[in-house]
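User: Can you write out an input/output pair for a complex, sequences first and structure second?

Assistant: Here is one pair. Inputs:
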Amino acid sequence: MTAVTPVTLRRQVELTIDGQAVTAGEGATILEACRAAGIEVPTLCYLETLAPVNVCRVCVVEVEGSRALVPSCSRPVAAAMVVHTASERVRTSRRMVLELLASSVDLSTAGRDVHRWIEEHGARPERHGPAAPPAERDHAHAGHHEPPEAGLAATVAQAVKRDNDQYVRDYAKCILCYKCVEACGEEAQNTFAIAVAGRGFDARISTELDVALPDSACVYCGNCIGVCPTGALMFVSEHDLRARGEWDESRQEVTRTVCPYCGVGCNLDLHVQDNRIVKVTSPLDHDVTSGNLCVKGRFGFEFAQGGS
Amino acid sequence: MFGAGGGTSSYREIEETDLVVLWGSNAREAHPIFFHHLLEGLRRGAKMYVVDPRRSTSAQWADVWLGIDVGSDIALANALGREIIETGLVDTEFVRRATTGFEEYAASVEPFTLAEGERLTGVPASVIADLAHAYARADRAQLCWTLGITEHHTATDNVLALCNLALLTGHVGRFGSGLVPLRGQNNVQGGGDMGAIPNKLPGFQDVEDDAVRARFDAAWGATVPPRHGWHLSQMLEAIERGDLRALYVLGENPAQSEADDRHTVRLLEGLDHLVVQDIFLTKTAQLADVVLPAAVAAFECDGTVTSSERRVQRLRPALRPPEGALDDIEILSALARRLGPDWGRPSAEEVWDECRSLSPMHAGMRYDRLEALGGIQWPCPSEDHPGTMFLHSRLWEEDPEKRGQPAPFTPVTFEPPLDELTDELPIRLTTGRRLDSFNTGVQSGGYASPLRRPEALELSPEDMASLGVAEGEVVQVSSRRGSITVPVHLDRTLRPGLAFMTPHFPDQADTNVLTLDTWDPKSGTAEFKATAIRVDRLPGDSGAAPVPEKASEKAGVG
């Protein structure tokens, strides 16, 4: 009995990235070719387990002969392609994207990379002025958006939604990357509890008719939390520790084990602080889960710490 | 199956198959991440047939749902087999080269015409024919099942009936074609692989094989008893007879998980000595003379577990266990020390390495390899072996030498459920799991699940109307074993005459008071899935607590 692994040998494509000769498999994206060549390209809406949706535009690069900048996360490489990832045009475009996001969204719990990119690209969100007071967003109709007073920066600020015991939705931190919608939808969970509602600056992630999660189709798999890049979706445990100023990643250890429930064998990464599980994730690069879990694997750990 | 106790396929194969048959499995709720792989297969164009008495949240994804009468699985399988033979869709070349017993099998299914199939199963003849043709004609097909097949008094025969279909059509031993029993616990597969079954030593090696025992005797410096032991149902009978007087229960809650559990409790209470090793003071532990507090394997211990695709993966300790709770290995070693032999204080890896030296199918699974490869699927006979994606590819070898022992057809007889429906007990109660809960709730009861709702007797709209009961009304449910009171809940996925409960909340509604403990003589599994019940309104106003329609309908959402 031997394993038979179907192998596809891809044709190789030669291209130039930032003056460097690079070889990539046919069908690979420019982003994949860049990463393989050790060239960093910032991404926000991209995740290797999801199909690209091309919304954040922070991964754009310049391709010679192409009129517009192209999203590297979805554009496949082509033979003899010449790519510039750090040209002035690219940097200006990224700076604008990062600056507008940072001026309108609370990025305080976004990853460290995001803050580094903001700095490296010289984005100055503060030049858009102080934040305008929070406005009602959930029931905004298309075209009804009122720009704030001159000199104030429009923001997506709003109250944290806390309508269940397991996770909070803080859409003041949402950059509308669509990852949660994709993970809840056909890219993984196929529950379709959330979608993007509204248009333009009023666009936001919403359940059907903006009902609370317990009245929606949500099954609490938490796969949306697993893909959220800014901390807009967060375990209650993490949210409360942060609120008390006790969240401390330097004191956390992440241990990989196997879920104690059914026989599928999902890998769990347990994030533990002070001998308590504060968050559960699953590795994106393990082919059993591709980062996804169910409600038991994601939240059903309390029995091991006196929760019963 | 066919000599190896594990599913033949890997999850990735269901993503690339052409036909999925999900039989007696609500994987959408019971194995959600497996269902992700299945959905990927559907997205790529596979068709799905779901065989289930309930139109479950899995069945709602099917192209065709076969709403089978509870416990008529063998009749359906045999009717499918007969139709495949009758219409000339047998993979004759595979059957000739790789199997034995076809003639006897064909004769055994002869009485199961489509009309007879419809009569016995409640599935329309045309739908039986449709599935038979689709399964036989598919290039690749995956046949998956769970407790809907195995929690019957004919459990083993039910499985064999499905294996026969795979042999008939050559849907085994090839990429994308296979037999997939989904395991209910994270190490049900590994427990069996490690010999925690009455007739096997680690690696499915027979206890009654002298040569096998000699190797274990030599390695362990002890004599392995040369006979098969008892499985759980046999142990309970031995307690009843007085032949078994002391019991050591590790991580199991039979006082609540066994069918006809009040009877089980009486048996446990009558023992001379009961030792329970568990992470909680379960109902079973409360009956014990000695309780050994254990650490939580998945979160507090080193070790391995084996999944439904035969993948051995590492457990690693993330938490320190509470004061006094010990790793199972430490407890067992300490116990051994007091009983005589000193095993020292072996690490999980040392125990595993000993297992690798004795179980050929695990031989190549060094800890560092398990780490590097994200787990390895058995068999993995050597340290340069990558593990095995699917079993039984040998059956397709040209060379008879390599093909080896042919796989046998096993004719099986159809027997309806033992707990007969009568005018007094007219409703069939079946049991199953909900997405957010697990077995008797020992583990899953601890977290605040936003989906949780109290246990209820779920009834079809038709039965609720004919009984004149309202949503939330507390009723008395009785079987030949006993009665419980429980609120009623409307479930539109049920057909008239079919009721549903879970075992998740035994303290609130002890479902296993009702179930029948008659078990399959081959596997020891009790018939949890088929209980005859009656439902009676309580005298006067029973204090119905109506549940808001919206919230009550939500919990089954997959």
